[in-house]
Structures are given as C-alpha cells and as structure tokens.
Amino acid sequence: RGATSVIDTAGTTNTVSITHPSKHLQCQYDHVFSPQASQESIFSKVSSCADALAAGYNATIFAYGQTGSGKTHTMFGPDGYQVSRSSYGGPNHAVITKNAGVIPRSIVQIFKSLSAKGLGITQMTVYVSFVQVYNENLYDMLRDPRRSSALEIHEEPGQGIYVSGLSE
Questions:
Q1: Is 168 helix (H, G, I), strand (E, B) or coil?
Q2: Along the 168 residues of the chain, how does pLDDT read in single tens digits?
Q3: Strand, helix or coil for residue 14
Q4: What's the distance, Cα to Cα, between the start and end of the chain in Å?
C-alpha cells in the first residue's frame, strides 16, 4: 500500500530487519516482552546484570522503544511507586512489591548479592548514573530530569568513552 519501509523479524534468531529504499538495517535483540508481561518476569531476564555488578563487573540495562511504549513503567514501576523500608532483615532491607520496576528491583538485588558474599564488609559504595537518549541527545536523569541541557559524549585515549558532566 505504498509503504516505503518494511520491518521484518526472524524470531528464531532474534533479529529485526528494516528495509528502506535507501538503506537496510539489521539488529539482534535479546527479548521482546508482551504487554501482559509482569514486572517480575521482565526482571528475571535482566537480574543477571545486578549479580554481575556485585561480582565486580560494570553493568548496563538498556531500555529501547518508541514514546509511550512502557519504558518508564518497566524501569520504575507505576506512577508514584515507592520502595518502602522495613526493619525485617536489618535497617537497609527494602520491601519490593509485585509492581516494582527494574531499577528498584536491581538496587535491592545488588545489595542482597553483596551482603550474601559474606565478606564481612561493613561499608560499601555503589555508583550509579542514569542517562536518557532522547532525539539523539544525552540527558542526565539524576541531575536534570526535565532534560533542560544535553550532555556530550567523548572518547579519550586511555580513558575510553565517557559522557562529560554526567553525575553519579
């Protein structure tokens, strides 16, 4: 019907192809969730990132999709969702409900994994950054949630790729 692009998926190889008269793109993906997927089932697919971080590796969770597709809901939970604290299990034990998104679940998992190692650590520091890519610009969502000033990405020999001015 006069379409100028064709999107096709190869489910057996988790590949999506976009064919346009001027170019062809092909990308692999790990998983696509249905609208009925629970927060718990989504987290079960990415929880290994939190465990890897507790083992000393850098970890990134990347949520991609068009505006209104549910990225914020998936990452945080429903509007107004709060993680509550409980004295059960110690003063820093957080209670996660079934509505919790990936970020609160990851934070709890990281600290559970670190404490389960039995290393006798009495104090630890975990750094986190939160970047949003919107209209090909980078925004610091910890410091600038209204996206008022874009950040720049750089590559420096010996330092690698970094975002200038990104908060932790």
A1: coil
A2: 455 556 667 767 888 787 777 778 888 777 778 888 899 999 998 898 888 888 888 888 888 778 888 888 888 888 776 666 553 344 556 667 888 889 888 888 887 887 777 777 677 777 788 888 888 899 998 888 888 999 999 998 888 888 999 999
A3: coil
A4: 49
Say how far apart CA 29 and CA 98 lie, in whole Å: 26
CB 146 within 8 A of CB 101: no
Binding residues: 65-72
Question: Rounded CA gap, 108 and 92, in Å?
Answer: 9
Binding region for ATP: 65-72
At which residue do the structure tokens 């975002």 appear?
163
**At a CB cut-off of 8 Å and minimum separation 6, what does 49 contact?**
59, 60, 61, 106
Residue 154 CB partners (closer than 8 Å, separation 6+)? 161, 162, 163, 164
Q: Tell me the pTM.
A: 0.69
